[in-house]
Amino acid sequence: MSQFPGPARPSRRGFVGGLIVVAVAGTAELVRIVTRGSSAQPVGSPRGLSPRVVRLLTGSSRPQPASPSATPSHSASPAPSPAHHHAPVPHHRAGHTHHAGSRHDHSSHHLTKQERRAREHVTLPPAQLRVRTGPAYRVDQLIPNAPQQAIALTIDDGPDPEYTPDVLRLLDRYQTVASFCVVGIHADAYPKLVRDIARAGHVIVNHSYTHALPFNKLPEKRIVTEITRTQRAIERAAGVTPQLFRAPGGDWSRFILRACASYGLEPLDWDLDPRDWARPGTKKITRRMLRARPGEIVLCHDGGGNRIETVRALRKVLPKWQNKGLQTIPLAITPHYTSSGSSPSPSSSPTS
Ligand SMILES: [Zn+2]
Q1: Both 190 and 302 in a single domain?
Q2: Which of 76, 165, 203, 346 is placed for a possible disulfide with 72 were both Cys, Cβ 3.0 to 4.6 Å?
Q3: Same-domain check for residues 147 and 45
Q4: Residues, CB within 5 angstroms of ligand 1 (ion)
Q5: Distance from residue 63's CA to the centre of ligand 1 (Å)
Q6: For the whole model, what pTM was predicted?
Q7: What is the pLDDT of residues 109-152, one digit of tens each?
Q8: How many angstroms is it from 268 CA to the middle of ligand 1?
Q9: DSSP code of 294?
Q10: CA dist., res. 210 & res. 212, Å (int)
């Protein structure tokens, strides 16, 4: 019954930007990742890491081709890939026809070594949740009885010591609750911020460990590590276990959806992308966010680059949403568990 439709909105790309990261997170692994990233732009490079971070990690002074400055995020993808990234598609889902896993399938010729590795399969644990056919991009797909005027604000790529506290203060000022899609490496670097987010009553979503892109091209083993490592990082930091996973860049695949089900995570997407990651100016971000309509899941960012425009936009948008009667709700969900193994069940109670 409630299988989510395939994803299909404009694509966006994320990125990781923290600095301190280096000291705290699995340095060896990161160095491997980044080093590989510097060669041929292989799958899984954490594009968006600032050149400074990359230099710290690799000990190299050579600028990394993959990270056009500390900017960002979703825009930072040099991925030679297809039009659906950055296509100036409207944020509403008109004309969307893609399904999870289909977006990159046309590139099956001339596999690189990384791509071949990506096709080596791993065995997932039995699904805890119903396997979705696509991620949720509207509130009612996750919370069927949500209030009519509900919208969900999702805030990605942090926590960030510079912007997350500002965002938290704003949410507090307007007595609003959001869902923070946290990057594991940042959670390890700034556990106190993760704790602050949880203590303020916001939902914490798993947004991978390194935000490597394109996420759905990573080897399966790596995808699993990105997911599980972030679960542990968030648990360590805040004592909560995320129930939602958002794929970096919104790049999904069938494997990612199966992995989500295996690890008890509902796949989360978004409906309205104000493209704040491209830093188009506070006014544009504000205007775009004010187009939000009831039921939509709105994307914005508190990490992955300079997010001052996003913070300023939120300052304007939050009171205006309230004046319009929109009710921002946290994506606090009741997962749909399977009764056993991977076979879907209508039951909503957990299995033992
Ligand atoms: Zn992201």
Answers
A1: yes
A2: 76
A3: no
A4: 14, 156-157, 248
A5: 23
A6: 0.72
A7: 566 776 666 567 899 999 999 999 999 999 999 999 999 999 99
A8: 12
A9: T
A10: 5
